Amino acid sequence: MNMKHNRLFAGLVILLSVPAMAQTSFDAAHLYGRELLGTARYVAMGGAMGALGSDASVISQNPAGIGTYHQSDFNATLSFAGSQSVTSPLLTASNPGQEGNFMFYSKNRKSELSCSADMISVILCGGENNSPAYLNFGFVYRRLNNVDYDLDYIDSYSNGNDDEILREFRDHRTAKVNAFDFNLSANFEDIVYLGTTMEILSTDVSSTGYFYDYYNRKTNSDRFYSENKWSVSQGHGINMSLGVIVRPVPVLRIAAALKTPTRFGQSMDYEDNLYVCNEPDLDGDFYASGTDYRFTSPWSSSLGIGLTAGSTAIDIECEKHYTERSALYYDGLQLDAQGGCQYKNFATFRAGVETNVDKFSFRCGLCHNGSMFKENARPYLTDTGFNDSRSEFQLVRPTTSNYVSAGIGYCSAPDMLNTQFYFDMAFVHGAQNQEVCANEASLSNKDITSAFTESEPVVDYKYRSNRLMFTVGWCF
Question: At 323, phi and psi to the nearest 5?
Fold first, then answer.
């Protein structure tokens, strides 16, 4: 293969590659995705506290929950977390999977143990001397998303020309979304609670990795290799939310909330090294670019019921995300093939229970998130020059996620100044389902599918995370 053919081959590989981190619906999904994060009490109850309130984590989920505070409050939350991306069922080099002509497996990598400050909150209560009505003010810094996964995929197959082909890709991805929430809420005789929250978001999504493609031919060996693949997307967003809680009888609370779309402004930078190697010749290409775009996430609404009986409380909630109303904008124009065209509306279900024994509390909870992607959704690659020029090689499509949690808490007795401190601990296990294909976009582009003789395997992965959380707080 001469130098001219090397360039043609490199151009073909770039054309067939997948821009999973371009300004597509898949890119925007990293901004909208949410983990189960907050105070240890909130997490231990599966995030089901929008109706019960009195926890700073609900400040945007249901702003009226801040109105249920009868004392001012300060708390801080620290967590230790680790994660692993594994094939499902488990596939390894000694136990690979087989689909058609493809044999594939993964190294099922683990992340390093990390420590992070997940939340700091201040709630100032305006109630005094059993006031029939008063206002509360809240400020919260919290992490909404703290994803860190290291995914790899290895396969081998033979094509129609008797070429033995070995491919490997690796992607280390982090997605961090932080929120700064400002709340104003009201309490009317402990019967009706109202609240509104302005939320400002900061986003930081990054990906590093490589793709390796080795052709072992009878007459010679040709190799295409991409190394030092790197991309980062940073920006900000803003939204508003409104909430109400009604307490018609002491044991029952009925909650409803509405959140406006979040308007994100994002900047993305990308670079890679691409080259074809055929000894003794080496032909390479370095590509770097950047772009700005906007993403508008959907409206969401929620309903919840809280029940209290003696020292036990139960909260059940459903939150609806109208994801089909999402939109991406580039140079002031909406990208018609992105956003709602590939998303579907989905729901989040939360349930939690708490029981108190003297000064101790015991909690457990469940949280389920549906999939925001339509079945077999793939990125559309040719709507902007930036998308059309990038070269990434795999598609990771998140589907459903589930969280199971439990925890314990301790609260001191009020002192002479009617202040008290509390300590909460929680453990949460999360599992997000992901569908991965080494070159799935090639299957959806009609002009280039002729280059493939059969569909490539779509492999199921699970992103598993374990998090141990600690919250220390003071009521005053």
Answer: -70, -25
